[in-house]
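Quick start: read one record
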Amino acid sequence: MNHTLEIAIAILPTVLHLSFSTSFEYHLRNSKMHRFSIPIIDIAPFFTGSAQIKQQLAHQVAIACETIGFFMITGHGLPETVIQGVFEVSAAFFDLPLAAKMAIATPTQVTRGYVAAGGESLSYSLDQVAPPDLKEFFLMAAEAQADDPYYQAPEAGYFFAPNQFPQYPQRFQAVLGDYFHRMENLAATLMQIFALGLHLPEDFFADKINKHVSEMGSFHYPAQTTAPQPGQLRAGAHTDYGSLTILASDDAPGGLQIYTPDETWIDVRPVPSAFVINIGDLMARWTNDRWKSTLHRVANPTTDEGYPKGRQSIAFFHQPNYDALIQCLDSCWNAENPPKYTPITAGENTFVKSEKHRNATTEVKPEKMLLVT
């Protein structure tokens, strides 16, 4: 039987019997229909449900990770006021004069602090040339614990460089720090769901993420008053490097697009109080590409959408411990489908990929440019 058909048949009984809400609709511009869908999954039952309910929920997540690599979650427990607070202090920061923001510009070798518009080209992470991305952002990360040798090892320095925060807004550090810790906890819950979805013990990933090297970015895509360069986007096409990403964004024009298995770019519209989740390259490697690390980008707005308007988003990029060995899970390979990738540590993978796009040049060779239509 066709594998896609098998998945479609398998999902129906579970959908009919689950008590939580799962919606299978794309949030597409102009409500266009599409054969692939992003599920909206209420994860609240995972916190209080029985083992059976947990397994059913994990099955739904696994289906999404196998077919499209993206899903949305509700029932995560984060108050809307907390999320809006992050957007508000971020907006106040990005409204500062450039000189004030550059006071916390990121150092050369690590990204902690502010990166001005044009300071990154994500397409380079896939060895594709494109003009710099049309965004500015603030980045923070997990911090070292002084009394633990793990954080003092030579290989740890890149991942635990000190964060730097602006003096204004005064609540910026407190608000983003609180949100970061909430994202840590939510990511740990999602990794538990992932483990069950892969028929592993619920705590399988616990010792691989307990000293994680995650990063969080607050992104501002400025209003576009002039036409972008050919091939230039708010964020170039890329995959994420780690285990998973948790995204919150406003609904301004020019947002997230994903590249579907039928080679189509589609828009992902935000759903109130929902986070967009996608898996990254390390989870794809762990699962031998059973789960999809999907190509995505942030598109430019069009004139009919209100071309000059800006956009904001907050993304938590969950990364395992820097020394976590990422090798094919036993349940994800067999004689007919052997492991595709050599084992690699999470730190090695992140360092190589991140250095590509952070060291990008502005030279564009048309024959290597990613297709952006």
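The first strand starts at residue 22 and ends at 24.
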